[in-house]
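Our preliminary data section would be incomplete without showing what the modeling component actually yields. Below, a chain of 277 amino acids is followed by its predicted structure, encoded as tokens that our downstream tools consume directly.
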Amino acid sequence: MRSKSRLKKKEIPKRNLLLKQSNLKEKIVGFFNNMPDLNDKSMDKEIKTISYAFIEKENYRSMDFSSMIGYKTVRELNAIFFSRFFPKEKKNVGRILPEEREKIIESLKEMYSEYTMFFTDNLFYNDQYFVLRQGDEIVAGVQANPVEFEIFEMPGFTGKVLMNILPELPLLSRLFQPGKFRFAAFEGIYYKSGHERFLIPLFESVCAKYGVNIGVTWLDNGSMIFHHLKKIGRMGFLGKLKKTVPGAVRLKFYNVPEEERMNFYKKPAYISAYDIT
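Predicted structure:
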């Protein structure tokens, strides 16, 4: 009888594997604990710094990882969908003029004065801030960036409907094609007090200009804009069909006093669509 010899895979001792994992974890935690070092070298190392992340609450791995490196949930956000099967352009909607930018920035700063994390860096990107006018007055505005995603999977029964059935239906397929999900990402939403209803024709006109059927914005659930859009309604079919998974606004603080940190828990957060997309 002949004996057969088999090559065995070289096994990594469990102790060494755990040690490597521990060293990697220490390096990752160390990097995120020293993020102020990434600031401009001319800045004081003790300057107040905040690192932020937006994570879907059901993305448990990312939630666990961010907890491991010291991030904490301060607020909750949701994606809000706007859709039209046949969006139409409005004559009183167009790109903001260069000389109007400073004024709209001041209006936005006033509107978001009770928010945290508001900044204007991503506004006017590619000259894509659109406004709706009544006569010579701007009554609503939005930064709208064209985005294209390829979606591979969506959870739940509704996800299966969207992925497998909706793309095959003649009219509904205009709203969703997994291989080429095109939409306008909205941020920097502005409206004159009492004129929130004008956001609907503004959103529709922007979608028409880009040749898309969907607009998406991400908003703090406790924000004024979130509640105004919910109250207005008229956001379209897709928003009624697809209920979004709440997301978490997660922060890590550096050199920020405890009393200042509490503001981020109490006040609504500004969400930049550019950061998410």
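The first helix runs from residue 14 to 33. Confidence is low (pLDDT under 50) at residues 1-9. Preliminary results of this kind motivate Aim 1 of the renewal.
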